[in-house]
Amino acid sequence: MKSVYSERHKGHAGNVELVAGAIVPAFEMPSRAEFIRARIDGVGLGPVLSPQAHTLDAALRVHKPDFIDFLGRAYPMWKAAGREGTAMPFTWPTRGLRGDRPPESIEALLGYYSFDAGATLVEGSWDAIKSSYEVALTAAGLVKGGEKSAFALCRPPGHHAGSGFMGGYCFINNAAVAAQWFLDNGARKVAILDVDYHHGNGTQEIFYERDDVLVLNLHGDPANEYPFFLGFADEKGAGKGEGFNVNYPMPAGTTFEVWGAALDDACAKAAAYRPDVLLVSLGVDTFEKDPISAFKLKTEHYPLIGARIAKLGLPTLFVMEGGYAVAEIAVNAVGVLTGFED
Ligand code: Q9C
Ligand code: ZN
């Protein structure tokens, strides 16, 4: 399997986040992608290609123009306001406040274009975000060009980013961009299987009223887990999208036996949908030792996930999302890919 990777992700570094009332180094750090990059060579998965340059046109097919424009302007504005270090949101236009029009100051803009404090920017973030987007589109091009599968080693990840907001380490929704790109380039239907531990709220929001993208999401129950405000089982799509969004919330402590049954059900739904392309939002934060998650999957299970997905026999694009127990995420993420190929 061919992979696509860019060193430009490394500029998105030194970010901090809020955990239990304290500012700590962000779990979403450059070493994540570096470990995976090394593991690809370690197991001989296949060639690793650099992304081709892309304009932002494909991003604008799923994101609002003012949001994409903001992502490019945010850190320069932060610096122009005399700040340095991590740009982090801290005020949000929730119920009872004015969320109907973009504000002016960088502090207000950060909150207006986010749903949490978890997507933070430093000097090199925007270039890294664009590189992650180009990685996804280049890998999508490989699948469109006839490859049975491809791996987009995206960093930063994307599935929490919605049409007009960032959050949860995510800025541009790489998987959603790729799905729309396939549709704009000849595909009639695309299925997205999101196996990241966290609900892919951004992906769900983007395609919620659409019947040309089936979104299947396996994740920690939002009743007790981030992102808390989306991802419940009764969210099934709306309008002509009704029935084309499926959530599988599962409790803390879920083992592979239970998780794998949900995967089987999701795969059956994907098969019945008969998509032209399958996109896998590949988070491996389901791992038992993940520092911010609560499922109990073991390293031996990841190749089984890949093998199960391969049985669908669909052109498949894997897009990297979360996974934070740095060294082991590489074994697990690449384990899915080798399991797919075996
Ligand atoms: N710091 C992905 O896996 N963390 N994003 C909330 C408080 C947010 C995870 C806990 C986790 C976001 C792509
Ligand atoms: Zn996650």
UniProtKB/TrEMBL annotation:
Q: Which GO terms describe its molecular function?
A: histone deacetylase activity; hydrolase activity; metal ion binding
Keyword Cytoplasm in annotation:
no
What processes in GO biological process is this protein linked to?
epigenetic regulation of gene expression
Is Hydrolase given among the entry's keywords?
yes
The protein's required cofactor(s) are namely: Zn(2+)
Which residue positions does the secretion signal occupy? Answer: none
Family matches, as InterPro entries: HDACs, His_deacetylse_dom, His_deacetylse_dom_sf, Ureohydrolase_dom_sf
What is the superkingdom listed in this entry's lineage?
Bacteria
Protein's name in the database: Acetylpolyamine amidohydrolase
Q: Which organism is it from?
A: Labrys okinawensis
